[in-house]
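Why show two proteins at once? Because comparison is the fastest way to build intuition. When a single record is shown, students tend to memorize it. When two are placed side by side, the eye starts asking what differs. So, the first record is below.
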Amino acid sequence: MSRLESMRRRLTAQIDGINWAATKIAETPGDVLEMGLGNGRSYDHLRQEVTDRRIWVIDRILKCHPSCVPPAADFLQGEAEPMLQRLIEGGHKMALTHYDFGYGVKEKDVEEGARLSPLIAQLISPGGLVLSQQPLVGLTQIAGPDTIDPERYLFYRAG
């Protein structure tokens, strides 16, 4: 599979996964967290699909498309660990987290996901969902929508 085809699969998985998750969290209290803003495409889709919740965003730098800049109060700029800790200490809970961090080096990405997993787990509301390209630990993996290859995108539910 070419890198272009792989990207198409990833984008389709993100769209289908976010749409699916948005319906599943209807009764779950909490905000939404976008981990990795990048160009802002998935954040923009979250804004469209989850209109009634605050959407927090964590990224090292702000360099997204101008139409996708989050409100300053919702953008946490810096390394993930201190930003997640800040949310935890603020008492925030997430109904939905979209984990989209990555260096593009599989081993490094998997290591980062494992390292951040305990902090992510502390933020998730009971019954909340996490969508991720990387395997996470300490959360219960569940089946996502049938349209997504279970090895392409991963879905987790907090206990």
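Second record. Ask yourself what differs from the first in the token line.
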Amino acid sequence: MAETRKASRFVVPVAVAGVAAATIGLVPALAASGDPDLPEITARQLIEKIAASDTQTLSGTFKISTDLGLPALDGLASGLGGLGGDGSSSADPSEKLTELVSGSHTLRVAADGPERQRLTLLGGSDEYSLIHNGDDVWAYDSKSNEAFHEKGESGAGEKDEPLPGTPKQLADEVLKAAGDTTSITVEGTAKVAGRDAYQLVIKPKQAGSTVESVKIAVDAANGTPLKFTLSSVEGGKPVVDAGFTKVDFGKPAASEFTFEAPKGAKVTEGAAEKAMKPGGHGDFGDDLPEGFEGGVPGLGKAFGGFGSGEGPNVIGEGWTTIAKLDTGAPAPRTDEAPKEIQGFLDSFGDKVTGKFGSGTVFKTKLVNALLTDDGKVYVGAVTKDALVDAANAGK
């Protein structure tokens, strides 16, 4: 128990990796060769086209490659193994889908409106499937022959924020929100899984952001986003490059969304809605310790008010927004962490000093966090220097 309590103190810096994953919209993407000749279109018109898209059905295969610039997570998994201690199933989506945070993966996807979706993660002869069909969410791991099930009211708890009433209004809102901090342009065309597409390119105008660009390929015929590539100012491989290799917008067979646990399979009842909520997305924050319920604009719920339960102070605007949190306690010393966790933290943490005192910047290619030795946290999709400057100004 002592080792488990000690390890739990280090969930905060380790969660930086989770925040980076949670902030990424994994829109399927993979551009093939060839640039189709399409009519010219403005950024406003393309945004209107996306907003007007009413794609309800599709099926296909896509690949996701993610490179957050993190060290290997193998040792970390064993180091945190004692934190759960509840005999959870190997089919639990909240654990299984974290594999997508790094490396390259091939998936099959099918959707038939907001009530039926299926996602299958392929791994050699093994498969992991997540199926949402009405009131039921099932997950099944063929390797361990274990299933995970959640049953609840369809669409319960999901409340959509009011949206502009027309595509033009939505486009106006997007461009207005971008303001002086963002450049939105259409830069050429692409072939994506055999489909003609426009390239929408979004770039920060502000210095200090870790984001170099976001590129979205939009289906020229129906406005469905087909390609998403998120690149970091650090260069190298994109942070996210995920994409359809095959796509069909026809209605999938009903059998795609039916599931019955195989004979002999271990079935666990649990909160699978964290991974696939009807009409929504999963949320890393739901799995973090008490006190993280607050929310950071643009970063989901993974960093909340810590012990105080209060929300963060927001510094700056646009792409260089930084959330300042006060844990109310000195930061944990990494040399007290279990060996596996200590090695992980040291491999992506930089010691820094300034007017604020001293601390450690835990870094990925997208989201960075500065934990000061006196217990304050500065986090955002900004560079290390931007975090240090914010801490100095705060002091």
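One difference worth noting in the second protein: Residues 11-22 form the longest helix (12 residues).
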